[in-house]
Amino acid sequence: MIAIINVRQYGGTYIARAKGHNVTASCTCGAREAAACCATKLARLNKGAVLKMKRYGKADTWVVDVTAQGERRCRVCLCTEDHACVDKQTGEACHWVEADLCSACAPLASAPSASPCAPASEARA
Fold first, then answer.
1. The whole model's pTM is what?
2. 62 in the same domain as 6
3. Exposure class string for 13-29: b at 16+ Cβ within 10 A, else e
């Protein structure tokens, strides 16, 4: 699940809200810390974990990838059933070759530092 977290500063406190979810968090340390707390709360509600968190644009907005419990995910590139990656050589969407390995990453399963796939959004560009 992808979530967008917006952070605003009120006085000396940063307040983070997950857009479309009833999850908020506050922190006095900084905007990133407030967003991280909000992402952790969102992951706990979904009985999952935060996989990635990156800043979006120049504003205090973060895009967070949260995995839900039982969601199938590639161990190399982290693609899912709903968000398949695209094999850079064939240009086709990946498929499962093992319980936690997609077809695009299978040749490099022993060396996960170089993923052969790209997210579908990058492949269209």
1. 0.55
2. yes
3. ebbbbbeebebebebee
Q: pLDDT band for position 52 (50/70/90)?
A: confident
Kindly report, residue by residue over 68-89, the tens digit of the pLDDT. Answer: 666 777 878 878 877 888 887 7
Enumerate the β-bridge partners of residue 98: 101
50: amino acid identity, one letter:
V
Query: Distance between CA 25 and CA 53 in Å, rounded?
Result: 15
Write out the two tokens for 17. 């809200």
Return mean pLDDT, the chain: 78
End-to-end distance of the chain based on CA atoms, in angstroms?
Answer: 22
- Domain of residue 96 covers 85-124
Of 67, 93, 116, the one marking the end of a domain is 67
